[in-house]
Structures are given as structure tokens and as C-alpha cells.
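Standup notes
- DV: blocked on the single-chain target, sequence here:
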Amino acid sequence: MIVSALDDLDAAFFDPRRHRDVLAVMASSRLADGRPDQAFAFADRLCRIDPSAALGRLLRFEALRLWRGLDRALADLDRAADLDPTDRGVNRALLRWSLEAGQRNTAAASLLRSLDPDDLALALQALRAAGPMATGVLRSQGGSVVGWVAWSGHDPVQLHVVGGSSMADDVTIRPDVGHKLASAAGAAASIRIDCGSTPVAVDLVRADGVATTILLEQTLAQPAVPRGPVGPLDPSGRVARPCVTVVVPVYEDAAATRACLDSLEAQAIDGDLAVIAVDDASPNDAIRQDLDRRASRGALRLIRNSHNLGFARAVNMALSEVEAGDVLLLNADTLLPPDAIRHLKQVADATDRVGTVTPFSNNGEEASFPLAHRASPLPALDEIAAIDRAARERNGWGVVDMPNGIGFCLYIMRRCLDAVGSLPELYERGYYEDVDFCLQAAEAGLRNLCATGVYVGHAGSLSFGASKRALVMRNLRILEHRFPHYRAQSAAFAAADPLAAARARIEALLVPSQAVRILAGPTGKPMLVLRRRAAVLQAMGVACLILAWGPGASGPTLTMRRSDGGAPQNLRFALGKTDERDAALATVRAMPIDRIEMADPKTCPDVVLHALLDRGVPFDLLCGDLEWFAPGSVRPPDPVGDQMVPIPEDDTAVPQARLRLALNAADQVVTVDRLSDAFARRMVGKPILQGFATGTSIGAASPHASEQGLVGVLVPHASASVDRMLTTIARRFRARGSRCGLVVLGHAMADLSLMAAANIMVSGPVDDADLDEAIDAYGIGRLFLPERTGFFGVIDDVAQRTGLPMSYFDWSFGQMPLRDGDLCFDPRRGDETIADELLVWASGRDAALDHAA
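- DV (later): unblocked, structure below
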């Protein structure tokens, strides 16, 4: 039984500081002991509380493979590879179990970097099995190429070494029969070739004429010492610059590249503007032809590489030809609004000790708008221009210091280039060389800034496609080796988010062009209902804005966020401050609104409630839970002989006055499932709009055959009352000697304390989209929703999706038809009574007969 995995756990399991490590250890030990079901429980929790770690996914894959079969497990192996395609254990598992040849080849290529002979042999055997191959790991060491190469067959191979502006003579490499990799590959040899010039790549040509390009690794080193002092300042405090040079490396996506270069040609600055495009061996004929046309008419200078050298080397080739002035590094998938370069230059010129300047963007990591570290779709050029104008109007030439700039559009001052030099070439074809450069600039005493009054569009990752994650993981390790404090600095910046205020100022001017549906309610549990409602409306093509109120340091606050991730995302107003309250009301009045749906009007600040009602648009109440409707007014008949839980009643004058005002103003009540519909029809004298799919059939419950007797507990929102109820149920189960157990599908208020009961497993966060998979993986046969007054909408949704029997609190008091197999509780019954009835139901016995006996 899965929950028996919690028996006799070491105290370290319950230590929050060691819990994650212990989960990995326990999953591994249960696998070694031949208990994959128990290993799954530990690995699953590790995946959910640390979703960014590949180890949890790998352990869960192994547990599911042994317990449920390979088909059920492969999704976790795929996800582990997505999270860290450089992980040794992940790649070994891919070579053994993946059904996709491309995935196995990628894993083999990654293992070639291993220093373990077994890993290298495994990788070479996999590559050899896929067909004729030639590969190797080579690095540049001064003017030499050193490393090893391996190839299938036994004939010699030819090496073409590419270095700087010259190419060395062909070098013949003969098989070394005694090489440790020869048996796995067919042929192998160690090499050291003196080239004279700086080598950057090698073509390895087999006897059949097929060539493989190997990009040379660079020697890992500590950050370089700046090459020179920061440039002298003139009396005005500025460094004179004759011009700006824009450097655009180009590889793939003809349409994006063409749009980028078109927007670049429309730019103008005070002074000369030069453009250097570096064709980094693009395989796209349309790109090559477009670059040729632009170069022939003088729109840009073109550098063309015969080999793909990667972002840093391509940029450095251009930088070597730029002797003066500032430089703008620009990705070929960006879109510049009018005068963007001029404005970046003006910001840089007006600020002291500037090294680099980065604008806001829809896809700009820390500088993303409207949310940091969240890419938004690339807007059209006219929308980019509108956001840029709003940014300039509200933020002017404002700047915010950042740990590092972002290379998609990085304005670099001449003093910074003189101090740092070229981009580091440790990062293969891309990712993090821009961060490395900026961190070196910071060590030289220069500032990395975000220009909050400039906005540039960025598509993102068009050139590297699916290989991005592997590059990111490999290069992040290099960066952290060179700059050990980078991760902490970056995390602190993200947590503080000093750019949020600048984002909010921009959003204040970006009134939606189309009418939106306002979904209003207090922070906390009602937000889950509002987000579910927003998802339903978005699927119908309705744009939604969630307006939420809650407590703040100086009184109530009001936030406004688009539910689809678009702007606004940062609007927050302290209603206790006159200027912010006025700004909030002005925003509400200016917003184009088609309809308002409100949950829990009793808690709505009066000024907000009146502002919304004054708009004169249709106004509905959303029946998503009981808490908005003074549950104390519900008077069901008292059951006989049962201990009852008192239902709280909010009879204070102000909340009740708000409720009456909202009820009088409401056109209708929107219900979200059959239970909320039955409740609203019984209690509210208003027309009802069924905001759920009424035509969908919810059939009779059919419990899964579950020898484990597991009850899945749905916890959309953790609360102390739910923890107390579950603790009581667990103790009651044990006292009755039951083998039934509980799996909490979500978070509890105190996960570790709850699991100390020994027959409760808490999975950790379960997304709505992941719920079915989690239920199936655990082998859960029945489901329980322990919320007494919250979360209408969950029961029908889950019942329809899973077909499992469900137990829940019935606020319709019998008005909603009960499915065969379901169990309903009177909401006023005590926890111990609930536990007894749940145990009978979970055991598959008839509750009525059990009570009669």
C-alpha cells in the first residue's frame, strides 16, 4: 500500500530543511528494495514540490516503469530530458528506454562530454548503431586543437581545422587500435594539432566524403581582467562617441529576420548609424539572398561565415571591425519601434557610469513586460510602437539597475567595450555569453540598466528551437563556475522586482481596445473560482480582467490583471491613499466593460462596489462558493441525534448592506455547476444563468478497482480546518483498524505534520490539467472534497473527467440528484461523524446498512 511507505520514517523526513533530499533518498531506496509503488509516492512528491529538478522526474519514471509499465512512464522521462538534457542519469535512461531515435542520438551526443569511460562507450555504441558516424570532443588551446575523435569503420579520416581568417592544411588521422574508445566506435584517436592561428571549428571528413563539423570548446577560466580602464570623461560627464554600430547575427527564420532588418532600416539617430549583419552559415537561401540585396544597396555591411560559429563568435567577428562608438547587439528576431536606438542612446548618454542598457520587451527575461521572466506573444509592430510611446510618456528616460543586461537588444557603451573586450566564447552557440559580459562590466564598476521608457519586440528562440534547453543548462553551469554569486543576485532581483512600478505606469495608459468581462472578488479562495470562470469565458472568446481586493499595509488594496497573461498585470492601488484611490477609480471608469460578474460582494470595498455599479453595464453575482451569501441564513431541517457543527453567520450591518445592494442591482446569478445551481435556485430570488456545460452528461460513478483502498482528497486551497478534518479522519481510520489511506492531491497547510499521521500522503501541488494523471498513477478509487463552504464547480468537473465516486458536502440538501456511488454529507455534521461515514464508503460497504447493523 502506498501510504504504508510513511511507516517508521526517519525524523529527517519531517525536517523542512532536509525534506527534499530525503524524498530522493527514500525513492531510491524503495526502488532498490523492489517497492516501486512506495518509490512512486516519494518521487511524485519530489516532482511536485521541486518541479524544476530533473532528478524527481527520473526517479518517478523508474518507479512507474517498474510498477505500471514503460508506456505509463515515458512522459516523465521526456520531461526529465526537457528539464536537464545534460544530466548524466537522464541521458543513460534515454539511451536505454527511449523509443525515439532522435532523442537517443541527442542523449548520446550529450554523454560524449562525460569523463566516465562507460558513458562514452554507451554513447558511441548508440551513435554507431544509428548508422555511419564521426564525432569527437575537441577544444582550442592557444593555437592548437586537442582532444579525441571517433568514427565508424576503420579507414583514416581527414581533419579540416578552421581558425580565424585562415584554414590549415588537411590533416590525416589514422585509427589508434589501442585507443580506449576504439571498440565502442569502430575507430578512435587522440589528437593534438598545431594550427598557428586561433582555431574555432573542425570538419571531420570520413572516407565516404561525409563531413561533421565540431565546434571547439574553449578552456574554462575565471572572469577575464578588464583590458583597460574606463574611458576618460569630458567636463560634461559624458564620453564622446562618433556613432552607433548595430551588430545582427543571423542564422534562421527568414520572415522574422526580414521584419527585424526592415525595422532597423527605419531607425535614425543623432550621428552616423552603421549596421553589420553576420550570416553565421545560414542554411536558409531566402535569408542569404535578402542579406545580399541589402548589402548591395548599402543598407548594411555583410560578414558571411562558412561554418556556424555561434552567437558569441559571430558577434566578435563584427566587433573586431568596430573601432569607435557604441554598439547595439540585436537579435534577428526583434522588432524595433521608431527611434528606439535614438532613445537607448539618449538614456545611456544621460546616466553616469553606464555599461549596458536593455529595453523592456514582451520576451526579455528580467525586462519582460507585462510580467518578468514570462514571455508574451510578439505584438504587431504598431502595437509595439504604442507600448513604446506609453513607456516613454510615463517613464521618460528612467532607468533601473539590473544585475545584467539581456542580449536580445543590448546597448553597449564604448567605455564598456574598452573595459571588458569581446564576448566570452565559452558558451558554444549561444545563451549566457551576454550575462557573462555584463557581469564582467559590473566588476569593472559599470552599471547594467533597464531603460524603462523604451520597449522592443522579441520573438525569442527562433534560431535554436528545441535545442535551447540543452544549451541553457550547460552554459548556466559554466556561468555559475565563473560567477558563483550570480544565481543569488538574480534571485534577489527577481524577488524584489524593482521594475514592477515602471510596468504598472505603462499599463495605466494601455486601456484595452476591446471590451472586457470584469470578474471581481476578494483575494484567497474566491480567486480560484474566478480563474476557473475566466477559463470558461476565454474558451468562448471573452476577454476577462480579474479585479481583486484584499488587505494591504495602508488599508485595502485593489489589483487588476488580465486572465490571459496580457496587460495589465501590475496595476495595484492602495485604496487608503487618496491619489491611488482616485487613480483606481479613473481606471475603472475608463475601462471598456461588457459585463461584471462579482463573487462575495459582502467584502467589496464600498468605493469599488459603487464605482462598478455606476458603470451601468450588466451586473451579475457569481455563485462560486457559500461564503459570499451569509451561510448562516441557510436553515435546513436539523438531523436527529447527530453532533452538529455551527455554521458561522456574518450579521454585521456593513457586509449585509453590501450584499443587499449587490442583490438588488444584479441582473442574474451565474452558477458554475449543478450544486451551485441547486443552491442558488433555493436561496436567491434572481434569474439564474447556468455558467457551465448543461448538455454534458455526468453518468453514474464507477469506482476503480483499487486494492489499496486509496481515497484521493481534493484540496484546491489549503486551510487549517481541512487539515484538522483530515487528521481526525486519519486517526479514526487507524482506530478502526482500516487499511484505507488518504492521498491529498494538492498542498495542506502543514504537509509534514499531516503526513506524520502515517496513513496520509500529501502529493504537493497538482495542476488542474495534471489531476487525471495523478489520480490514475496512484490508483485512487474514490475522491473526497473536504471543503464545507467553498469551491462549487469542482464536483461536476472532476466527476465528469474521472467517473469516480465522490464524497462532498451537499448545500442543496437533497435538491441535486445524487449519482449512484456518491456520498453526500450534511454540512453541519462533525468531523468524527464524517470520518465514520467516509470509512464505510471507502471500504465499499453500504453506509445505510452499516449504520443499521
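- Follow-up: The longest strand covers residues 447-458.
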